[in-house]
């Protein structure tokens, strides 16, 4: 089963995406901040990460930097969830191999699932 | 000497609808101000009527497949994806002769004797009245006083026999719109207990505060129901649609084959035309909704819900019985629906502002007048 990690502090969004991905046959785990997200990725080893940027404790860019610093996190594709678009992302993210950006308000959950399937070659 | 047959036991105690009583009362009044019935403003749009007439002229008047004509199901599938984020195959959609009949067929298709059906109180009467027809057990979950989902109460009422939870947002009779976060939580609860959800979204295009969210977009064990009566002012055409899990839609199709054979071919052609254009702007409804809220609050009422559909459900002054208050209104030539049609509570009435703004204003003036007399 394809595994997705959702690192997002908005409980409505992370639960909504979790329900949607599970309905589509994915195995999903969620974390509500960057610190929990890093721990989740290490233990869960997902096939793809959906990563929010603005989060308490540790933001998305810091979390991704930590994930990429470990062997287990170097190759996992990451889609960043933003409110505004790629311009919202800090410059440091450019070095961390983000696959693509999704503006949350512009994507329905179905479109997010489709995007993930495209990235993973599951379409 | 003949034995005089009675109705079945199943229907013997079936309460005659409050709606019928109102219709009877309506006959006795001369030009009543009718804020009782849930009719949308204005007639069916001309382009839809033309499509119906064209269907007759083109002899599209024969039986259709039990689940409806493929073109209409395709148009509905596109609409569901675009508006509701529900990706569904056209074979998982069935056309029904109105949502009330659709609801009965869903109940008969999924409920076994003894299954429990959780219905919000207040809510559209067929949700509760049709449960015993399927030999199932009704469980009402109050949403008073703010008419929102009480997730703790829903959780507390779940048993191993709970099969269905029925929701309706925007809501008839309260006008409440359930927020996305509550619907996501409800989906989680339902998933945890493997419960089917019926989501009646008939009023999705009538929202003035908040936005519509279809629980079926994230929870596949949802039976989403919608129709053309309100969105396109087609109440008398009797046409709706049901989507959901494949096996359930198949069962409904089997039942349709013997119970109704098919929905009207003419209405289906008209509905296909309806979906080719967006629903009409709701500006006039938004104005009426505000007028109702302002007038009732000025008269001393606590207005809850009222964020969508075109209904307001308000508590009668000084705890008057709903039927007494409605009777007093009828004495002033105003028709309102007693709340007991929708609820076990008997101190609420439903006001429909589907009519013209002038009619609604006249009705509100009478409510203010009889409130001041109380």
Spatial order of the strands forming the largest sheet of chain A: 2-1-3-4-5
Order of helices and strands of chain A: EHEHEHEEH
Low-confidence stretches of chain A: none
Radius of gyration based on Cα positions of chain A = 13 Å
Please, how many helices of chain B?
13
Query: Helix content range of the residues of chain B, please?
Result: 25-40%
CATH homology superfamily of chain A: Response regulator
How far from one another are the termini of chain A?
A: 15 Å
The number of domains of chain A: 1
Question: Mind explaining what this structure looks like?
Answer:
The complex is a heterodimer of chains A (123) and B (374). Chain A has helices at 11-23, 34-44, 60-68, 109-120, and strands spanning 3-7, 27-31, 48-52, 78-82, 100-103. With 123 residues, chain A is of the alpha/beta class. Chain A has one domain: Response regulator (Rossmann fold). The relative contact order of chain A is 0.18. Chain B is an alpha/beta fold and 374 residues long. Chain B folds into two domains: 9-44 and 281-373, Aspartate Aminotransferase, domain 1 (Alpha-Beta Complex), CATH 3.90.1150; 46-274, Type I PLP-dependent aspartate aminotransferase-like (Major domain) (Aspartate Aminotransferase, domain 2). Chain B contains 13 helices and twelve strands. Helix content of chain B is 39%, strand content 14%. Chain B has helices at residues 9-12, 18-28, 46-57, 70-84, 99-110, 125-129, 151-157, 180-193, 246-259, 265-274, 283-298, 322-331, 357-373, and strands spanning 33-34, 93-96, 116-121, 137-142, 162-168, 196-200, 222-227, 240-243, 311-315, 334-335, 337-338, 348-352. In chain B, strand 5, helix 8 (180-193) and strand 6 form a beta-alpha-beta unit. Classes of the chains: A alpha/beta (123), B alpha/beta (374). The interface between A and B is medium-sized, with 10 and 14 residues.
